[in-house]
Structure formats: C-alpha cells, structure tokens
Amino acid sequence: MSERKLKAWQQAGLIDADTAARIQAWESTHTRPLGVWAMVGLGALAIGLGIVSVVASNWDAIPGEVRLGLHFALMAGVAALLWWRLSKASGESDYVGDAMLFVAAVLGLTFFAHIGQVYQTSSPLWQPLLVWLAIFSPLLLSFGRGWPVAGLWMAGVLGTAWSHADDYGHLWLLDGRGGEQLPYPVLYWGLIASPPMIVAALAAVMRGHSTRPIFWRLLEQVAIVTILIALSIIFITRGWSGQTDYVTGSSVIQSLFLAGAAGMIYLVRRTRTGEASAAILCVGAVLHFVMAMVRDFRGAVDDPWIPALLFLALWGAVAGGALYAGWRWVFQCAIGVIAVRIIILSFELSDDLLGSGVSLIASGLFAMLVAWASVRISRRYAPRREAEA
Fold first, then answer.
1. What is the pTM of this model?
2. What's the CA gap between 365 and 343, in Å, rounded?
3. Gyration radius of the chain over CA positions
4. pLDDT score for 381
5. Nearest one of 184, 197, 175 to 262, comparing CA atoms
6. Which residue blocks in the chain are alpha helix, DSSP H?
7. Both ends of the chain: CA-CA distance in Å?
8. Which class for 146: exposed (0-12), middle (13-18), buried (19 or more C-beta within 10 A)?
C-alpha cells in the first residue's frame, strides 16, 4: 500500500490518521521481498529451461519406449499428488489443486501427441482430442475451480469440434465447401457448432446444483464469450461466403441451439444476470437467423451495411444486457467494440481519399462522443464492481 494513496484516502475523509497508521504498520510487517522472489523465480526458470535444453539435445538418442515410460511415470506422480491434494481441498479457492489439475490434464494431452510421435501414427487430430476429453472431463468438471481448468476444458471441446469439421469439411477454406462428402451436411454443420451453446446451458444448470458455483459460472462465461466471438466473425466475414445450399439450413439449426441455451439459462437463473445472459443469446439467435435468410438474397451480404448493422445490433444487445445486469466493465468493452466497428465501416463505405478522410473524422468524433456517453451512463447505472456475473 503506497503512502500517497493512504494520504489521499485520509484527505478524502475515508479513513482517519490512526487507521492510516495501522494500515501502514500492517503493510510494513507483511511486505514480501519482491526482489528476492524475483531472483528465485528467475533461478527456477533458468534451471527448468536448462533441463528442457538438455533433454531436447538428447531427445533422438533416447528410445521412444523409454520416453513414453518417463512421461507415464511423471503422469502417475502428478496423479498421486493430485489425489492427495484434492482430498484436502476445501472451499471455492484452491489454487494449488487447480494448478495441479491443469498440469495433469496437459500432461495427458501431450502424452497422446507423444505416442503419435513415437509410433508415427496418422490418426486425425480430433480422435486423440476426443479420447482426452472422455478421460479427463470427469476429473476437470468434478474438481475444477478456476479459469485455467475451465478454459482448458473449453479449449479441448472447441478444438475437437473444429478439427473434426476441418477434417471432414475443409473448414480452412472458410466458405463451406467440402461438405458434399457428408451424408447430411445441413445437420452436420448445424450440430458441429452447437457445443458452446450446450456448455452454456449445462453450466447454468450446474451453478445451482454444485458446491462449486464459481467454476460453473466461469465455464458459462467462457461459453458465452465463445458464442459472441463466433457470431461476430460470422457477421464480419458476411456468413462465411455462403456459396452452398446447406449453409442456410445449418445456420437455422445453430439459431435453434442458441435459442434453447437462452431459454435454459432464463429458466434456471431467474436473476438480473441470468436474464441479461439469456436476452443476449436470444438476440444472437435472431440475428444469426436473419443473417441466414439474408444470405439467400444475392448481393445482400455484399453490401457492408447489412453485416455491419447485424454486428452493431449484437454488441448493442451486449451493452444493454450489461447495463441491465450491472456489468460495468462488459458494458464499456461492448461500447468500445461498437466504436471500432463504426470506424471500420467508414473505410468500407468510402472509395476515395477525400471520402475516407471525412468519414474518419466523423467516425472519430462519433467514437469519442460514444466513449464519453458510455462512461457517464456506466457511472450512473452500473456498479463499479460486479456482484454477480
């Protein structure tokens, strides 16, 4: 705690002189030698990097079976430590146990890659990812408590779905081609994008039936952020070009999943935050459906206005939901995204240098006005800290 801040609080009447003195005395007796800890951390990092370098330099000289045995022994050791740690864990916060969970899951994931390297297997990426999910999902979802575990598990789900779609549908083309080899392309492309919606609904249900509601709240947030990013990319890329007949039907299925997730969240979380999350997903479902319908009209998505308006409507809904729920930081971020999209739109609508300059000036002034208004609005209607997200 800095002395300057204590003096500022004292001058503002928040604390008196005795309280400031006690705070300063307590801080002085509980300070950590950051310089020493930094040196210890650098030393540990140097030792770790040295060990990795030594192993890497002799990697090819070590037989594959020996490397796999050492890897498996390391996994067994971490599993034993994890078993001992989880039996003693209590409460919502257990950073050590969560870190050990993360390390154990990463070791398991890299073990499959190690097997592929030693035995030169050629299986597609989604198969080992799916096996990893089947083995580690019960462990991560049963004992996870923080962001690292929630993010890792969600990344595994998304990676499995993405690699499967890329393997069967050439997702890297970003235009929907390659689905002709599938027997039911409409159903496939509709279902392959549904995991984030299912995870959001599942996490919302588990928040009220688990002793770790914070973990399920984090998982729900990760799923909703993933959905918003995916919808934003779809609007920015104008519907992945949409040159195939099954894109519209699959988009309708995805919209139904979005609406289902919104309905489930609304039913199980009858709070302002739950209603805000459900409303945002519901608006996203409607906008995604509109994008699917507009895609059928030739030339409609070529006009930058329509995708831009859908993008702005989506993040306008995020801003409105954040304001309703009291998410101050989310509201300001949504307004920032809207301002950036308006500036980009000014480039898309201007064909010459003069028009671009005028549009930039106008959009810059508008962005500054939006930023000023958002700060005023958030100070009045949104709390400084989120009580519930």
1. 0.76
2. 10
3. 26
4. 60
5. 197
6. 3-11, 17-29, 34-57, 64-88, 95-119, 126-143, 147-169, 185-191, 195-207, 213-236, 246-268, 272-295, 305-325, 328-349, 353-381
7. 28
8. buried
**Chain segment 98-114, per-residue pLDDT in tens:** 888 888 888 888 888 87
Burial of 175 (0-12, 13-18, 19+ CB in 10 A): middle
Q: Are 144 and 215 in contact (CB under 8 A)?
A: yes
Which of 58-67, 155-164, 287-296, 361-370 has the least mean pLDDT? 361-370
Examine the pLDDT at 93 and tell me if it is beyond 70.
no
Task: Name the token pair of 69.
Answer: 């045995």
What angle (nearest 5°) sits at the alpha carbon of residue 373, between those of residues 367 and 374? 85
**Sequence-distant (≥ 6) Cβ neighbours of residue 175 within 8 angstroms:** 240, 241, 242, 243, 244
What six digits make up the tokens of 187? 């159903």
Span 45-67, pLDDT tens digits: 676 567 666 666 666 777 878 88
